Amino acid sequence: MQTVFTDFDAAYWQARYATGRDGWDAHAITPPLQAYFDQLDVARQPRILIPGAGRAYEAEYLHQRGFRHVFVADIAPEALAALAQRVPDFPKEHLLLADFFGLPNDPPYDLIVEQTFFCALNPALRPAYARQCAHLLRPGGTLMGLLFDTDFGSVQEPPFGGSQEEYRAYFTPYFEFRHFETATNSLKPRQGRELFICLKKK
Ligand SMILES: C[S@@+](CC[C@H](N)C(=O)[O-])C[C@H]1O[C@@H](n2cnc3c(N)ncnc32)[C@H](O)[C@@H]1O
Fold first, then answer.
1. Per-residue model confidence (pLDDT) at position 136
2. Which residues contact ligand 1 via a Cβ below 6 A?
3. How far away, in angstroms, is 76 Cα from ligand 1 center?
4. 107: CA distance to ligand 1 center in Å?
5. Which stretches of the chain drop beneath a pLDDT of 50?
6. Whole-number pLDDT of residue 153
7. Which UniProt keywords apply (predicted)?
8. Which residue lies with its CA nearest to atom 23 of ligand 1?
9. Residue whose CA is closest, atom 13 of ligand 1?
10. Alpha-carbon torsion 198, 181, 34, 71, what sign?
11. What DSSP line would sit under the chain, residue for residue?
């Protein structure tokens, strides 16, 4: 029998923030993303999207380092409000209160950053996630970040786990794989349980 999940909509996520059920929140940029961002060339001013950004410490980090085309998208107002409060000069027009799956690709992005967004989606949406990332990126653009490579058991709400083998199938039609291996610098509770991915759009 097929597993049926509830609809994890804006009200669901807003309620998780409001009730403090936000165990995913690292309260700071995580080491794998920081290390990746530190080797980006700020002079190129890439157009960067962080979908399902939550409180968006990555956007704060990039903004403070001079990246001026950073966009965050989330369906929970609470998440975007937290970034706006911490970083008052973050451009308000870069705070997208929007469903990732409906975001336009004009102009396209150079880089999409993934962290605990993929695992927050109903797993039935995973093929659509890979397709939408490819749609939003320019040819040669990059999808990078972290995916849980672990089994959370038979849960009825996020996070949902998975395996490297499963994920490969979603991304192969659209991306070339530069990195797709266990992250070496994960936060302690996530060590050995997440993949560092860096994929180039074909
Ligand atoms: C598990 S949280 C992760 C937040 C953040 N990436 C982090 O690591 O702290 C998942 C986030 O995705 C957002 N979200 C869920 N579905 C979404 C969708 N379809 N479009 C945009 N954001 C969505 C939720 O509101 C929530 O903020």
1. 98
2. 13, 24-25, 51-55, 73-76, 79, 99-101, 115-117, 120, 158
3. 8
4. 22
5. 1
6. 86
7. Methyltransferase, Phosphoprotein, S-adenosyl-L-methionine, Transferase
8. 52
9. 52
10. positive
11. ---------HHHHHHHHHTT--TT--SS--HHHHHHHHTS-GGG---EEEET-TT-HHHHHHHHTT---EEEEES-HHHHHHHHHH-TTS-GGGEEES-GGG---SSPEEEEEEESSGGGS-GGGHHHHHHHHHHHEEEEEEEEEEEE-S---S-SSS-----HHHHHHHHTTTEEEEEEEE-SS--GGGTTSEEEEEEEE-
In the chain, where are the structural domains located?
45-93, 104-202
Report pLDDT digits (tens) over 30-75. Answer: 999 999 999 999 999 999 999 999 999 999 999 999 999 999 999 9
Q: How far does the centroid of ligand 1 lie from the alpha carbon of residue 58, in Å?
A: 13
- pLDDT of 179: 97
| CA 121 – ligand 1 centroid, Å | 8
Tell me the two tokens of residue 27.
Answer: 């309260």
The predicted pLDDT at position 98 comes to: 97
Give residue 7's pLDDT: 79
Interatomic CA distance for residues 165 and 12, integer angstroms: 30
Fold annotation for 104-202: Rossmann fold (3.40.50)
Q: Look at residue 1 in the predicted model and tell me its pLDDT.
A: 46
